[in-house]
Design goal:
heterodimer, A: alpha+beta, OB fold (Dihydrolipoamide Acetyltransferase, E2P), 2 domains, five-stranded antiparallel sheet, 27% helix, B: two-stranded antiparallel ribbon, globular
C-alpha cells in the first residue's frame, strides 16, 4: 500500500497560482524526491498531499481512493517537518507515543511500539529526555520515530536535513535511505539540494514555478535532461552553457557541457584559469573563456595550474547537450 | 568589555539610583514598623506611648481580621480563576483571523485603561443598581425580581468587577503566548490524529503554562491590594462581608483613627503577601525556568 496519484491538481493563493495543473504518479514503495529552487511550490505540493492545505482543483488519490478532501489524520500519511515540530513539553517517549495515544491504542501496545521504534533509531537511551536536551540529529530521529510508529502508507519529508550541519546531513541521508530499504514504504521527500535528490531518490520530480519540468530516475535526469532548466539544476558543479556561433556549429541555440566532460587540451576553446577549488579527489577549475562565459572544469585532484595561466578546453563530443531557443532539449 | 575598571565605574554610577530606591522603600517600611509598636490615635495627637505587641495582638484576634483574610484569598483566587480561564478562551477567539482584527484587539484592552474607581462606579450605578441598573432592567424585562448585587452578594460582585478589569491583561499576555506557538507543531499534531480539543489540551495548554505563571504572579501582587473598587462600591460592607485586609487596614487607621493598629495590620499584610509569594514561587515558579 502507498500509491499516490495526483490528477490535474492546482493550488492558488488569491491570484497567485502556486501549483499549475499537475499530474503525478507515485508508485508503491518508491522514494520520490521533489526538488527545485525555493519558491517553486515543492513544499506546497507536499502539504497538499498531506492535507495541510486544500487543493484548489483536481484530485488526489491514495491507494485508489479519492482523498482530495479527507482530513490529514485520515489519509494515513506521516510527515517529518523541517523544524522537526517535536512537542517540547513531552519526553521523547511521549512524543513518539503521541499519535498512538491519539489513535486510542492501549498502553501495552504503545510501549511495545515505542520501544521497537527507539531501538531501530538508536534512541533507547534518550527516551526519558525532553527534545530540548537532544542534539539536532537526535531530534530528527525522534521526529522520524514519531512517523514510523504510525505505520503510515507513506512518509512525507519536508526538507528534514536543512537544519543539520554538513557532516550530520550526510549521515542522516544514509540513515533515511537505510530506513527506506528496510521499511519498503513509499517516501516523498522535499529538498532544494540536488545532491540529496541524486543520492536518495528512486525517482526525482524537478519542479519550477509550480510546474513539473521532468520526472525520472537520477541518472536519467543527469544523462537526458528534458530542458535547459533541468540540465542546469541537476549535477554539481553546474553544467556550462554556450550560446552563439559555437552552439550554431552543433545546430542548436544553446549547448551544454558538464564540467566532467570538458578536457584540458592543446587546442580548442581558449581561456585563462581563474579560481581553482581543490577538493583532494577532484579539482574544479573556473576558466575565464575568450568570448564566452566562465566555464567550470572538473579535473584530477593533483592538477596544478596557476591563476591566469592560458589553457584550451575541448568538450567530449558524445556528451554535448543541445537545446533550442525555448530551452527544450533537441533530440 | 567588562573590565574591572568599567565594573567599578558602573557601580558608582548605579549607586545613586539604588540608594534612592532603597530609601524610597525602607523609610515608609521603617516608619510603619515603628508606628505599629506605638499607641498612636489621631484623636489624641501627641499622646503616643510605647505599646509593645499590643497592636498586633488586637489586630490578629479581631474577628474582622479572619473575615478579611478569607475575603482577600477569595478575591485573589476568584479573580485569578476567572481571568486565567476566561483569558485563555478570549485569547483563543482573538487568535482567529477575522475582519478588523487590530481594532478588536485594541478594544479588548480598553477596560484596563479605565481607572478602578471609575469602572467600579460604572458597574455599581449603571449595571448593578437594583433600580436603575442594566441588570435590573433586564430582570424586569423578563418579569423577574431585580437582584441587588452589592448587598446580596457583595464579595462576588467585587470579584466580578475586578475580574472584568484584569481579563484583558490576561487575555493579551496569553494571546501573545499563543501566537508564539510553532505552527508546524500544530500541523504535526493534526497529522498525528489529534482533534481540535486534543490539540488544545496537549499542545496549546502546555505551551501556555509559562504565560499563565506570569499572569498569576503579576495579578496576585495587584489583587492582594485591591482597595478602590471596595471603597466606592460597598465600603467593605454590608458588615464586613466585602472587607479585605487592605480595606481593614484603611478602616483601622483612618475610620477608627488608630494609626498604631493600622500599621500593625499593614505589617501583617506585608508578611502575608510574602507567604503567598513563597507559596506561589514554590508551586509555579519552576515554570519560569527555561
Amino acid at each position: 500500500m502507498g500509491q499516490i496519484t495526483l490528477k490535474q491538481v492546482t493550488k492558488s493563493f488569491g491570484n497567485t497560482d502556486v501549483i499549475r495543473p499537475l499530474d503525478l504518479e507515485i508508485g508503491e514503495g518508491e522514494f520520490v524526491v521533489f526538488v527545485g529552487p525555493s519558491g517553486c511550490g515543492k513544499s506546497t505540493l507536499l502539504r497538499l498531499i498531506a492535507g495541510l492545505e486544500d487543493i484548489s482543483s483536481g484530485q488526489i488519490l491514495i491507494d485508489g481512493q479519492d482523498a482530495s478532501h479527507t482530513p490529514p489524520a485520515k489519509r494515513g500519511l506521516a510527515m517529518v517537518f523541517q523544524s522537526y515540530a517535536l512537542y517540547p513539553h513531552m519526553s521523547v517517549r511521549k512524543n513518539i507515543a503521541f499519535p498512538l495515544k491519539m489513535a486510542g491504542m492501549d498502553q501495552a501496545a504503545i510501549d511495545a511500539k515505542v520501544n521497537g521504534a527507539a531501538k531501530v533509531l538508536n534512541l533507547t537511551d534518550y527516551l526519558d529526555r525532553r527534545p530540548g536536551q537532544l542534539s539536532g540529529g537526535q531530534r530528527q530521529r525522534v521526529a522520524i520515530g514519531r512517523a514510523i510508529v504510525r505505520e503510515p502508507k507513506a512518509f512525507l519529508f519536508d526538507e528534514p536535513l536543512s537544519n543539520l550541519d554538513a557532516a550530520l546531513r550526510v549521515n542522516m541521508r544514509l540513515e533515511i535511505s537505510e530506513l527506506h530499504q528496510s521499511l519498503k514504504t513509499t517516501m516523498i521527500y522535499v529538498t532544494h539540494d540536488q545532491v540529496e535528490a541524486m543520492t536518495m531518490a528512486d525517482k526525482i520530480v524537478v519542479l519550477s514555478a509550480g510546474r513539473i519540468e521532468q520526472v525520472g530516475s537520477p541518472l536519467d535526469l543527469y544523462r537526458h535532461p528534458a530542458n535547459k532548466f533541468v540540465a542546469g539544476f541537476i549535477g554539481s558543479p553546474k553544467m556550462n552553457f554556450v550560446t552563439g556561433p559555437e552552439a550554431a556549429k552543433h545546430g542548436a541555440d544553446t549547448i551544454g557541457i558538464r564540467p566532467e566532460h570538458l578536457k584540458l587540451s592543446d587546442s580548442g576553446w581558449a581561456g585563462k584559469i581563474g579560481v581553482t577549488e581543490r577538493l583532494g579527489s577532484d579539482t574544479f577549475l573556473h576558466v575565464h573563456m575568450d568570448g564566452m562565459d566562465t566555464m567550470t572544469v572538473r579535473t584530477e585532484g593533483d592538477t596544478a595550474l596557476k591563476y591566469g595561466a592560458p589553457v584550451h578546453l575541448t568538450p567530449d563530443p558524445a556528451c554535448i547537450h543541445r537545446f533550442d531557443a525555448q530551452g527544450k532539449t533537441l533530440a | 568589555m567588562a573590565t574591572a575598571h568599567s565594573r567599578i565605574a558602573a557601580r558608582f554610577m548605579l549607586a545613586p539610583a539604588v540608594l534612592m530606591l532603597l530609601c524610597w522603600m525602607i523609610v515608609p517600611l521603617a516608619m510603619t514598623i515603628y508606628f505599629s509598636f506605638l499607641r498612636y490615635n489621631l484623636l489624641m495627637p501627641g499622646m503616643e506611648q510605647w505599646a509593645g505587641f499590643d497592636n498586633y495582638s488586637y489586630f490578629l484576634t479581631d474577628p474582622a481580621f479572619f473575615t478579611a483574610l478569607k475575603n482577600t484569598l477569595l478575591l485573589v483566587g476568584g479573580v485569578l480563576l476567572i481571568t486565567v480561564i476566561g483569558g485563555t478562551l478570549l485569547a483563543l477567539l482573538l487568535d482567529q483571523a477575522m475582519y478588523g482584527q487590530g481594532f478588536v484587539r485594541i478594544m479588548v484592552i480598553a477596560p484596563f485603561f479605565v481607572m478602578p474607581t471609575v469602572s467600579a462606579l460604572v458597574w455599581k450605578n449603571m449595571f448593578m443598581n437594583p433600580v436603575n441598573g442594566l441588570f435590573a432592567y433586564m430582570a424586569k424585562a423578563v418579569g423577574l425580581q431585580p437582584f441587588d448585587f452589592l448587598s446580596q452578594a457583595p464579595l462576588a460582585s467585587i470579584i466580578l468587577i475586578v475580574a472584568w478589569q484584569w481579563l484583558p491583561f490576561a487575555a493579551l499576555i496569553l494571546l501573545t503566548a499563543m501566537q508564539s506557538l510553532d505552527r508546524e507543531q500544530m500541523e504535526a499534531a493534526e497529522m498525528d490524529g489529534a482533534g481540535t480539543f486534543s490539540r488544545f489540551i496537549y499542545i496549546v495548554v502546555p505551551h501556555l503554562t509559562r504565560a499563565v505563571t506570569v499572569v498569576i504572579l503579576i495579578q496576585t501582587i495587584f489583587l492582594l491590594s485591591v482597595f478602590a473598587e471596595i471603597l466606592v462600591t460597598t465600603n467593605g460592607g454590608p458588615g464586613n462581608a466585602s472587607t479585605n485586609i487592605t480595606y481593614l487596614v484603611y478602616a483601622q487607621s483612618l475610620l477608627q483613627f488608630d494609626v498604631g493598629g493600622g500599621s500593625a495590620g499593614g505589617i501583617v499584610a506585608v508578611i502575608l503577601a510574602n507567604i503567598v509569594a513563597i507559596f506561589l514561587m514554590r508551586m509555579i515558579g519552576k515554570n519560569l525556568e527555561a
